[in-house]
Amino acid sequence: MRALLIVDMQPTFCEGGELPVPGGHDIADRIADFLRAHADRYGLIVTTQDWHINPGNHFSNTPDYVDTWPPHGQAGTPNAELHPRLHAALEALRTSHPDLPQEAVRKGQYAASYSGFDGITDSATTDDTFAQGLALADLLRRYGTTEVDVVGLALSHCVCATALDAQREGFATTVFADLSAPVSVDTGDAALRALREASVVVTHSPYWTFACYTASRFGTQPGLREAAHRLGEGIARAGHGIVYGGGNCGLMGVIADAALSQGGSVYGVIPHHFDGHEVSHTSLTCLEVVDDMSTRKNRMAQLADCFVALPGGVGTLEEFFEVWAHRQLGIHQKPVVLYNTDGYWDSLLAALASYAQVDILSPTLLDSLIVVDTPDALLDAVIRG
Fold it and tell me: E strand or H helix at 212, and its extent?
């Protein structure tokens, strides 16, 4: 049986909290979306929380951020509770998956604690006498757990410590790197090395977010609207999410509506000055209004695991070429896709091939470009393959 361990997903470790991890709120959103789409993978969900009452020298007014830290995760405070987005997702699961057990472990009450395996359940975190007063390892064994997936905050500290202990306890352990974040790049890299040296599997979760670039118009070419609809449906049905430009018009509105109709998570990012040009979609999972196009593009890139350019015009081309150029520069290594509905991008592909033939465009970069025309082909190329 496989369990999901959600480590310390608390506001105290997110932006605005006492000990923030960069991107913490985004990780809470991703975990919530992952639960929404992939709860069927699990026979048990366990959350851990820092729940400090009097942790001794763990707190300091002059912390060194190695052994001592500013006060955080203080028992009974709002920032020590589960992140609101995660809490809402777990509550929704009680309705959609009533037979899926949820347990909570608190740690660090009177001492420094990093690993979830230091914590125990108590009457405040479970009303099930089956699970009260159990250390995490015993709790997992009582449920018959053999495999665990570990997510949460921070990858460099409590997620790493929890995963290493899970492996030592004999559980086949996987860390979903996209559902966690480190305190810093260096500490994150060190944690990943330690995990891999301990034979912990580090991989991407089964949940992907696709940045979809496309037109705010419908165009006259037959089939464009239906193709956008099928792609939105296909991404959502496969248990994945979309981030896009936030409008409700044209092909961009079609793909958003199609994904939402299948219960998918759809995030929109729209500049405030587009009011009246691209009317904001009001039914999204989340809509962020940002200052300008540059911020919009950066935010979409931050949230995306893959970039897909559907048929579009100048704006779509500009967004596509920027993320493709960033891949060439090593800014990211995420897949970049042209969704070639009815040969829409054939002329562009021919031009790109001619540039590569005269060694102006890198043939290696051109080879990295994925070209598909169906949802299944996209998922096969990016995830299944």
Answer: strand 209-213
- For the CA atoms of 216, 220, 222, 224, the dihedral, rounded to the nearest 10 degrees, stands at -10
Range(s) of the chain covered by CATH 3.40.50.850: 2-203
Report the distance separating Cα 39 and Cα 33, nearest Å.
Answer: 10
Domain with CATH 3.40.50.450 in the chain: 209-384
More confident position, 129 or 383: 383
Per-residue pLDDT band for 63 (boundaries 50, 70, 90) equals confident
Q: What is the DSSP letter of 58?
A: G
Catalytic residue among 14, 158, 160, 212: 158
Predicted confidence (pLDDT) at residue 30 exceeds the cutoff of 60: yes
For the question of residue 107 being annotated catalytic, the response is yes
Q: Per the residue annotation, which of 8, 29, 178, 305 is the catalytic one?
A: 8
Distance, first Cα to last Cα, the chain: 26
- 3-state secondary structure at position 275: coil
CB atoms within 10 A of CB 234: 20
The CATH fold assigned to 2-203 is Rossmann fold (3.40.50)
Per the annotation, the verdict on 286 as an active-site residue is no
Verdict on whether the full-model pTM lies above 0.85 = yes
Q: Is residue 334 among the annotated active site residues? A: no
The fold for domain 209-384 equals Rossmann fold (3.40.50)
Catalytic residue among 107, 149, 165, 212: 107
